[in-house]
Fold:
Amino acid sequence: MYRLLVVDDEDFIVDGLIDLFEERFPASMEYYRAYSSGEALEWLKRAKIDIVLTDIRMPGMNGLELHEEIIRLWPQCKVIFLTGYNDFDYIQSAMRNESIDYILKTEHDDVIVRAVEKAVYELQHRFESEKLIADAKKRLQTALPVMQKELLWDILNGDVSQAAVAQQFDELNLPLRSDRPVFLVLGRIDGWNGISSPSDRMLLVYALQNIANEYLSAFAYHYSIFYEQARLVWFIQFKEDSHAEENEGDYRQGEQRNLFVNGAMENIQNASRQYLHIPVSFLAANDAVDWYECAEKYNLLKMMLHVHYGMQQELLLSESHLPENPDNRVTRAGIFELRPNKWALLQSCLEKGDMQHFQELFRELVKLIPANRQQWDGLGFHIYHSILSVYFTHLHQSGMTDMFGYDQVMASGTNRTWGETAERLWQMAEAIFERQNNELIDREREVIRKVKQYISANLGGDLSLTRIGEVVGFNPSYLSRLYKQMTGEGLSDYIVAERLQLAKALLAKQHMRIHDIAESLGFDSPAYFARFFKKQTGMTPTEFRELL
Structure:
């Protein structure tokens, strides 16, 4: 779903265009209204906007000045200038940017619709699959030096001092600065769409990194490394800009910086789904840290992504979503001891809720000892205690320490045959998976409850996906998908139904003026309310009231 912002100082033009687009693009757009350049700028700083349709001549900041802010905040945004003046010279400088179009207010509706369709097409076809794969093959042949990856991996493991970072950055010619803080973003490929060849998978990874480069390079220096078969880490440093330092509200500062990173990750996720056909998840840090603090930050993000949200796909999260639970704190050593071996894979399956692969690994381990063996040897004790360690580590990190009593488990294990013990261990795993699934469902249901509660209390207020996402703490696109997955209906459809239900109830109150009803439902004018009501019911509000 794309976000389209309409900007004009004449209310009827904004409302009329939104009505037109809602009719022509019923389910593919989320619309935002701005009746001044200042209001438009507020939206641009608050949400990732894909298309802006704006008047040129407006009081205060004109359309061209607004365009400069648009390309500064959202370089990939498509801009369509709408004006009553046939003055091409006036926008000639802006037309040098291929991301804009230009139409007259006097043009037929079809011309305006085609301009928006063109912008959507360009957004959808920004990346061509063949070109991505070709670029990926080239990158595969000229892969970045292994030493660069090893250095950054050592930093994430806390094995490099700050002084060594500065020296080795210069030696390895990394495109990052050792004297500036860095943002970390964790990525995870949630599925390979049936691709099993390691080389083909690496091509997709390189293609994903190419997509990220397209969206990140405009505003940041960045570097990413791929590890553990399906995971990535991005190191991001914002480019210095004297203009940015002069503007307190610039996106490179504070919350706007986080918004820009999250917007870029949303674009990368969408492009990966559309062109590479692989789902990816992202988790971004809330703030930049010094290089010597990267290990601690990485551990926190990894725990959050792999433990608390491991069963979900195509996540778009920030560090602020970490559940507030003191049991979730993990020491650096506890994470670092997990290496890419069977124990780590077993733990990973548990974290992600991957019961099928967990069972396969579990069976491989327990079959190493005969099921009827009563007296255990060292291998039996090693497997038994290692599996329990995986369980209890996961339970501690997930805040589920109340599930099993450690003393009881230990006492009931060693006096049974190995087959009986293995069955008991498997029953424990089943219980963990079941509880994880139930807690996930409960969390998602709670999000849906909060969404519906907010909508019910704000039917006359801001019900944009951006605002609802802010209320529940989720990315708007991810929230939209989650809501439809959980309820079977689109969030916008639910909002329309709730507004319509309340509208009918208020119309039944004969003493209420239609003007007041429209205002209480958040419509900017009675005419806009009438168009909405007739579209949904086939009757005007007055006709509906006469039937009561």
Summary: Strands lie at 2-7, 29-34, 51-55, 78-83, 100-104, 183-189, 220-227, 231-238, 280-284, 316-318. Residues 458-547 form a domain with the Arc Repressor Mutant, subunit A fold (CATH 1.10.10.60). DSSP finds 23 helices and ten strands in the chain. The CA atoms of residues 413 and 421 lie 6 Å apart.
